[in-house]
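Aim 2 progress update. The chain analyzed this quarter is reproduced below.
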Amino acid sequence: MSILILKGVEPMNDLPANIISQPSSSLPGHEETTILSTRPALPTKVAVIDLGSNSAHLMVVQIWEDFTHTTIHEERAQIRLGLPVFGQGAIDSTTQLRGMAAIRKFLVSCQNHEVETILTVATSALREAENSRDVIERIKNEIGLEVNIISGREEGRLTSMAAIHSLGLLKGTAMVIDVGGGSTEFAFIEDSVPKNLISLQLGPVRILQQTSLKDPPEQEELKHLYQVIRKALVPVLRGKFPKPDWTAGTSGTALVLGELCGTRDRAATSLETRIILKASLRNLLERLAEMNLEKRREWLGPFSERADTLIPGGMIFLCAMEELGLETLVTGAKALRAGIILDFLEREFHADALRRSNCLFHATANEGLFEETLDVRSQNILQLARRYGYEVKHCNKTLDLAEQIFEELRPRHWLGDEDRFYVESAALLHDIGYHINTTRHHHHSEYLVLNSDMEGFHQMEIRLLALLVRFHSHELPGPHHSEYAALPDRMRRRIDILAGILRVADALDFTHQSLVKTVKVQAGPNKLVFHVQALEPIDLEIQEALAKGNLLSQAMGMPIEYQVEIIDGAD
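Predicted structure tokens:
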């Protein structure tokens, strides 16, 4: 999850200085938006801004010295980002202004609560909007926040993680159903581990844009609406999941349904919840459908903003319960924003980037190791590589050499352990494009990375990995590549260094015979000398390294020279 750092942009005048975190280790003199920041000191206050398809939400938490956290402020603004997207494909100027006003209001609250770190995410509306990049750039330029778009599966993972922790469902099986404005996520959990994540383009705001209903809706219209929902759910639910021990419904729609027709209960964690019976939900929806929109708003009182979305949202839950054979649904569990905080804690305080990198390095040689020892991101890298039949020996050697070169150049490139993890991940994925075609395989590798659901990675990280595998071959990055050209200068230079390291590492195993054992780098005043120890002559490898080393040479600002020493294999 991205930690938003306000560097290299003009923030709004009243943006509190204490939410501008310090730059992470990087090339000096290039302060742009970064992916990760310096680890904050505890206690600290962290805010999550969630730009959903129906509403925008702010949650501020206090994180204590023992890594527990307390929610101290919550705020909501209904901006309906999804309405223009699901209807016309783009976010119109009026909706943009409404969203910008909500974000500015949230930042004032952050200032009042002395927030130190802001995490901003967006879901299905911005995932799908044709002008998504323009909107994100506008938010960055006018307000100073970097918006991180998360995939549907990642949304499901984060939501389910928060739900099971808040309900204390750490053992047994559970199903988490999250109905958002534009998408619905299903997560099947076993002993607190997500086993199956599904994201569907199905949500009440989307349905309202694609289905016309009279006011009040007629029975035939309601039957058609139910069939539309059922048609979307049946192929992915029927016979796909065992019956879970518990089923939790999350999102604002679920909370309101729980308040209207659920009975009070308490989870094992003492969290107050509601239990919805399937029959009670069906009766509630029938009653709501009898009212026109004005009467529904009046009857819902504090929940009047959901008067139009509650029927289609409730139908999604009802149809899911029927297809899964469920009689009850628990509501009140924590959801996406709490999951983002849990993920933040894991990344910033519990997970060490160097340890993750070392584990990935060692796991490559052991097919069964990673399931038990690696974090979710490392697992996804290895799973993706294996899915597309990566050449284990060559990719492992490329990873080994990339790690050596990265460490040898560490005093000069100013990059950190997270970057080492990125280049090692790219080393495992750089040739997966061969699964599609040997011609332009680096383009295919980029495509597979960009279009694979990689849990635990945010959008900028996926783009970074995709560009690294794209430029591992002879093609040089430049303005002709739109994804690369759109990045800030500091990010482009970061990619140049990492892709440059990957290119040399790949070249030094050009024959795929693992002939190179060690690489040491000696930095002189005018050049970098790579001292390479090999088991036998490596003329082809050096020829390839000279051809592909131009990017690293350019990024480091000096030419590269290779000196080869032939060693005994027993050394």
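The radius of gyration is 26 Å. Residues 1-37, 368-372 have pLDDT under 50 and may be disordered. These observations will guide the mutagenesis experiments scheduled for the next reporting period.
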